[in-house]
Amino acid sequence: MTEVNTPPRTEGAPEGAPEGAPERTPRRPGRHTRLVTARPRLSLLVALVLTALAVLAGSGVADRLGSGGWEDPAAESTYATKALEREFPDSQPNLLLLVDSGRASVDDPQVAAEARDLAGRLAGEKGVTGVGSYWQSGSPALRAEDGHEALIAARITGDDSAMGRTLDRIAPHFRGTHGPVQVKLGGIVAVRHEMQTIIKEDLARAEMIALPITLVLLVMVFGSAIAALLPLGIGIVAIVGTNAVLRGLTAFTDVSVFALNLTTALGLGLAIDYALFIVRRFREELSTGATPSTAVGTTLRTAGRTVLFSALTVAVSLAAMMVFPQYFLRSFAYAGIAVVLLAAAAALILLPAALVLLGHRVNSLDLRRLFRRRRDPKRAEAATGTTGTTGTTWARAAGLVMRRAPLFALGTTVLLVTLGLPFLGVKFGTADDRQLPSTAESHVVQEHIREGFPGSPGGGLEVLAEGRATAAQYASYKQQVAALPEVARVDGPLVEGDAAYFTVQPKGEAVDDPAQRLVGDIRALHTPFDTKVTGTAAVLVDTKHAIAQRLPWAAAFIAVVTLLLVFLLTGSVLIPVQAVVLNALSLTAMFGAVVWVFQDGHLSGALGFTSSGSIETTLPVLMFCVAFGLSMDYGVFLLSRIKEEYDRTGDHDAAVRHGLQRTGGLITAAAVILAVVMVAIGTSRVTNTKMLGLGIALAVLVDAMVVRSLLVPAIMRLTGRATWWAPAPLRRLHERFGLSEGEHPAPPKGRDQPQTARGRRTAAPAER
Description:
By secondary structure, the protein is an alpha+beta fold. The strands form 3 sheets. It has a 5-stranded antiparallel β-sheet with strand order 2-3-1-5-4, with helices on both faces. A 4-stranded antiparallel β-sheet has the order 8-9-7-10, sandwiched between helices. A hairpin with a 2-residue loop joins β8 and β9. It is elongated, with a radius of gyration of 31 Å. The N terminus and C terminus are likely disordered.
């Protein structure tokens, strides 16, 4: 498309506008607009240099990230674990060598000799301590019940990165066939290291899947290859910048490797959302005859404000995870806030500069013409974002919903609540080797230990006793613990100075409800010395307590700040409450599906994962914060356009129809594209990442296609003009500090106008 030379609009109705349309008040460009439009090439050059520096700064970030972070650092179990590592390092093995003797017995002399040689070589490796084995101790817990497998246990020292490097160095020397035995590596270190490796590989594959599909969808939405490339560019800038931020944060705090998945998903998803909104508005302004500079100025004053506002609401939802002590959750807050703000900054600085330079060429390279013989004028209008069949369809849909508002409101609410019912049966657990694919080496080892070894080695409880005590007191305490109904066996104590520790094997599974009750029973015993309980079940109990204790604060933070931000956008008391309630309701399908699929195991074969019968405790919190923020993102897009039209006309029903007509297709397209990105993330072989990706994809689609398209217009029709009510003090507060996307038209001269709900003058009905 060639650029059309059109004089700038300074007064009067816009070119191409219907006769009698209200005049636009002339607006001077703001400082931000003048900066972008005055030196667009300089802005893009600076951005290119900063992006190149970010690529260098963020290189190797995945190697510095941790694969843990689910524990509360202030919990009793965390303290006990660290104390045991310090006082009794041999008590905390994190590396297990599963020695398989084939058809021979593990007690066969040749097998025993080879196993002792392996244990001796392992003890001589740098960074390895506390090596022990069945062939040294004779412990039945280290020998499989069938007599063909046994364990060598050791501890790799250092932080996550150091342990990973040590494992990479020693694994090739121990994995595989050694004489009469076959050796596989397991234990916490192996599980986490393998998880970290798989996540990096899966993330690269997800990007290769998502980028081309996203580009095709953007071309279908925009019709222009040039316009379609702009959102991808913004997304790449946001992702690269966030990687650099995370790389810097690793110098000061722990960051989870799982945060990289959120960086990619939100970087692409939000960049596409914001770019869609801005480019769509820019093309609308061009279609009315505005020059590129004028169109950019109008776009920044309208859609630009909405993008900034939307970014704040998403950042607020993600910032709520800072309330929790687990660095797994805090890492998502770091990554999420960074990528949201960078995506918004790129959309508000780099994208306008590019649009000024492109001008009408933003509509160039219409690839859709390859699939049709001639250009339909209505499709041409739709491509620029003015009218067209798509907008008409959404207007008709809004009209239908509003005519049957009670039916749609009740029906969609019942549907969403029903989809969420499985969540009432949720069971919380811990992340373990079953997060990995069934063929992963460490998963195979842990599965053999769970099913073939007595007492589930490594799955029991450990009790740290601190303070001077006699042998009789230790013996009395051991008897008390052994007398508890859920205890199968108590070993110990092992004494070192004024400290001792006991190991307690529960009768059932390591983290089932009886094992969790046993933690409380042991902690409730009265002793002459201080005791601290750790182990898998104790960590789970403490994690659940930390989440439950801080969850109300996080929810209150999200709710209060969201209510305030939406009030500043709309000036209404009711709309913010509606936004919070409907956003929460839109997430019910996601939570119900998570339990039905990932906890109960439905579709596990089709999706390729192993169900552990529980949901990792922190995952619902993470999914709520991310999905709620994305729902608010779409909610702000819709509400801002409704508010703009209501300010212009004072007609509530028409404003709702207009808002859905203008944003319905846009929100749906953005949701589909974001869902594609999340589904690509959901192809991960790690179950938590798969759950996150597929769950968020479902939440986004339900929010866009059910809540925004059906429930919101139905509820707003039922509440009518009362939707916009606010008491006088709050109304004055909004008049002074409120935000608005709309550019309020100048009142037509010589005409009488009625007051709107906010006291603004609008055109009389006959003049609209």
